[in-house]
Amino acid sequence: MTTELPGTGAPERTARRGPGRPRNEGLDGQVLAAALELIDAKEEVTAARIVERSGVSRAALYRRWPSLTALTAAALDVGREMPPAIPAGGNLREAVMDALLGGATAGSGPVDYPEERFRQRIRLAMSDRSLQRMYWTSHVSRRRAPIVNALRAGIEEGELRPDLDPDACFDLIAGVFYYQLVVRGESFDGPATRGRCRAALDVAWQGMVAVTPP
Amino acid sequence: MTTELPGTGAPERTARRGPGRPRNEGLDGQVLAAALELIDAKEEVTAARIVERSGVSRAALYRRWPSLTALTAAALDVGREMPPAIPAGGNLREAVMDALLGGATAGSGPVDYPEERFRQRIRLAMSDRSLQRMYWTSHVSRRRAPIVNALRAGIEEGELRPDLDPDACFDLIAGVFYYQLVVRGESFDGPATRGRCRAALDVAWQGMVAVTPP
In this structure, what CATH number is given to the domain that contains residue A52? Predict the structure, then answer.
């Protein structure tokens, strides 16, 4: 489940891609595009359909992805970028808030990641736990790294409380965004939703900062 | 969407029901049980199937529920109880933590609410935004009231920060639980999951308490 997947928007790929060049290139891109078409059309992703739509042979498909689950997870991640590392020495709070709210408030989701696809991704994850776990391991958990690392650095530098669990903190601050979409059924472009997320993040941050000695 | 639905576990019904009596009684119960069977079997909830399984006529069905969406939302809520009000004067932190962690840590979900049904509920909500909004309005948002009210009381009494938005705080503390199930794909009975939730709630609470004047 920790297999390196091609075409996932993992750092090394993102780094290679210039800003103006098309996202999906070559066979990987054709396969991922075909999978995404099926996902967006709410059709089941099968090898036969991918072969038919992409023109890539079944053998080539399975040389590139160990399973349809891995391919589906990779397709669901197309358009999601690895956030850049947060540089040390700046305003940690602002940098983390920007990283969290920047993408989420620009529109109803990250660029190239429409809200309907987000909903479909959650739907597929709820239907298929192995897909959910693979998407978590190969994609989501990696994208957490820049912020989790920045929190860890903040703890080491004494800006954040020494007893914090950076992973639990990330769950807390990311959870509030998922709550809006998954439970409330809100989009991110509503000002009330944005305001609630910002207020909740303020509370979380307040709970994370080190208490200055009296 | 704010119509009072029968058989939803809303306060007045919960209050009428003795602790030892069966949850679903009469026609309402037969209809809800039939809808739940369909949901658990991952079959579409249709009027024809409900009529067939419950023996309740289509006319009676629509006298009781304004729509299939409302009926589905009510069925998804069976087994979820309205939490009791948090009495004033006690240890607010402990009461809120118990209310949050009590149900979630007793097993893989609230009693009578299996995790697979939770996953199916999220799946249906992601497929159907009107169901999601109805479930939110008629069920989830009501169940938030005891804790949101307790937070509001804590603000008024000066235990919590005066500038808090109780709804945003609830989103923050509830979001961390959804993150475990929806994003990480974890069950609540894992000790690591429980530990992360508890650590995250500690951070949130720390961010909510009023700073004592120096």
Answer: 1.10.10
